Amino acid sequence: MVVLNKIYTRTGDAGETALGNGSRVAKHSARVTAYGTVDELNATVGLARLHATGDLADQLSAIQNDLFDLGADLCRPDMEKDDEAPYPVLRMIASQVDRLETEIDAMNANLEPLRSFILPGGSALAAHLHMCRTVARRAERLSVELASMESVNDIGVKYLNRLSDWFFVASRVANNNGADDILWVPGANR
């Protein structure tokens, strides 16, 4: 259980922050940048949820919870020392990726195949989901970069990869099952 009764601690005033294992690193470290971008993604999902209803709203809620799990996973280095922690360490698991794949397949079953790239936009929800997609891709790139330097749970990286696909397909659902997608016209303004 997390208890936050004092929001500011002044411990980060010198440009460092604590990781999940208690070690301190620079706030601009690759690990902090990766989980900070996951936090930014979670905020963009919150904006999208303002426009969502039904299944999409419920699924976005689950995604927000997953993103907190992913942030907790990324903020704790040294996966090989998880069994030494005084408490169970939270790591992303394959079933979270599997759930996204199942939802993508279900949404995509009702969509016509694309014959063109689409432009971000259409409905307000679709536009927000496209923003989520691009932030998810950035979080994925930063997590892959981190993984080239330090140990990272590969399931978290897979989750981000699948999640950006989820946002793309969900944006089409939000655009009247693709009927209101805005198609890219190559060279249209030449």
From TrEMBL:
The protein's matches in InterPro entries, at most eight in alphabetical order, are given as: CblAdoTrfase-like, CblAdoTrfase-like_sf, PduO-typ
Q: Name one GO cellular component term.
A: cytoplasm
Q: What is this protein called?
A: Corrinoid adenosyltransferase
Tell me its family.
Belongs to the Cob(I)alamin adenosyltransferase family.
Q: In which pathway does it act?
A: Cofactor biosynthesis; adenosylcobalamin biosynthesis; adenosylcobalamin from cob(II)yrinate a,c-diamide: step 2/7
Pfam families, per this entry? Cob_adeno_trans
One of the entry's Gene Ontology molecular-function terms is:
corrinoid adenosyltransferase activity
Q: Where is this protein primarily located?
A: cytoplasm
Catalysed reaction(s) here are: 2 cob(II)alamin + reduced [electron-transfer flavoprotein] + 2 ATP = 2 adenosylcob(III)alamin + 2 triphosphate + oxidized [electron-transfer flavoprotein] + 3 H(+); 2 cob(II)yrinate a,c diamide + reduced [electron-transfer flavoprotein] + 2 ATP = 2 adenosylcob(III)yrinate a,c-diamide + 2 triphosphate + oxidized [electron-transfer flavoprotein] + 3 H(+)
Q: Tell me where it resides.
A: Cytoplasm
Domain Cobalamin adenosyltransferase-like intervals:
7-174
Keyword field: ATP-binding, Cobalamin biosynthesis, Cytoplasm, Nucleotide-binding, Transferase
Question: From what organism does this protein derive?
Answer: Marivivens niveibacter
Coiled-coil regions, chain positions: none
- Please provide the Gene Ontology terms (biological process) for this protein: cobalamin biosynthetic process
Tell me which SUPFAM superfamilies the record gives. Answer: Cobalamin adenosyltransferase-like
